[in-house]
Amino acid sequence: WLDFSDFTELSDYEISERILRKAKVWLDYGKMFGSEGEKFQRINCATPRPILEEALKRICSEALLFEHAS
Predict the structure, then answer these.
(1) Which long-range contacts link 6-12 to residues 24+ away (Cβ below 8 Å)?
(2) Is 36 helix (H, G, I), strand (E, B) or coil?
(3) CA pair distance 27, 3, nearest whole angstrom
(4) What is the pLDDT of residue 26?
(5) Cα-Cα end-to-end distance for the chain
(6) pTM of the prediction?
(7) CA 28 – CA 8 distance, rounded (Å)
(8) What is the bridge-based pairing of β-strands 40-42 and 28-29?
(9) Structure confidence by residue, pLDDT tens digits, 3-53
């Protein structure tokens, strides 16, 4: 689970869309697992380590852009 609760200016949908469109990584809405999942995104770690590392780098790079946009 990835916690995006610090990004208060963005909705869950906006966070997901930005990561999908800009970082090119698919995550599952945390909210689809219940209301307590709001502002969380689920990542599937059942993939080879190099792919997971690349995905996390892309997500982190995009998250840094979130911070600079606010």
Answers:
(1) 7/39, 7/63, 7/66, 7/70, 9/70, 10/66, 12/38, 12/39
(2) helix
(3) 12
(4) 92
(5) 23
(6) 0.75
(7) 19
(8) antiparallel
(9) 988 888 888 888 889 899 999 999 998 888 888 888 999 988 899 999 999
